[in-house]
Amino acid sequence: xxxxTETHSAKWAARAAxxxxxxxxxxSVTDDLNQLLIELTDIEPGNDVLDIASGSGxxxxxxxxxxxxxxxxxxxxxxxxxxxxxxxxAETLGLTNMTFEISRMEDLPLADSTFDAVxxxxxxxxxxxxxxxxxGVRRVLKSGKKAAFMTHGLxxxxxxSAVLAQVIQNELxxxxxxxxxxxxxxxxxxxxLQEIFTAAEFKDVHEQEIxxxxxxxxxxxxxxxxxxxxxxxxxxxxxxxxxxxLNDTIEAAFAPHLxxxxxxxxxxxxxxxxxx
Length: 276
Fold this sequence. Notes:
Number of strands: 8
Largest sheet: 8 strands, mixed
CATH architecture: 3-Layer(aba) Sandwich
Radius of gyration: 19 Å
Number of helices: 10
Shape: globular
Structural class: alpha/beta
Number of domains: 1
């Protein structure tokens, strides 16, 4: 019988193709969040940076562009399938300052006091042991340097996630939804990131919610990328007619957020950061 870790790895391997399909081909299209992590960790040209749970390259690609040819970015992920998109993006952009490491974030195979900064965008929620992860991050940071981790905010403050979760539950049943939510949202509550950074013995710890209204064009099916990344394997058994019907249902569910020729949607993310 497969262990929980093996099952989790298999699920991410299955989802990797959907993440790669929907990832940017070069520079980030949601770079504001990457630039915030860069700012909070004081990343500068020439720095050596570790990005944990890099997946398709957010924010590793943006960091590699920032640190330049004299710097170095180590993009780490437990699932080699997830890093495929990051490798392709780096090649497209001609980036030669990136290395790729396959490892669980709880067991960093890296030397003490190596990095000028450590970042993680939407990865800590998948950790089997977040405190061990943060303690490992502190170990590999140089003295006086910073780590910053970003997580999703409360589901009810993230319109696309909330609407899609409800539609999927209604149309396809609640299989895996509880498990997905528990992994995505453990650090959505205010104070939870600050608490774990403090427990890992970081200094000068801070936490902030990034709350904003985003607009999406009408008739754009803006939800398609999120739908495939989050629920891709569950969509594969559906035929074209069923997929069309599901998208019609999703469009109807978003109708209350339609303002003329565009949708107005709430987005909430949490970011915590601290100094070694």
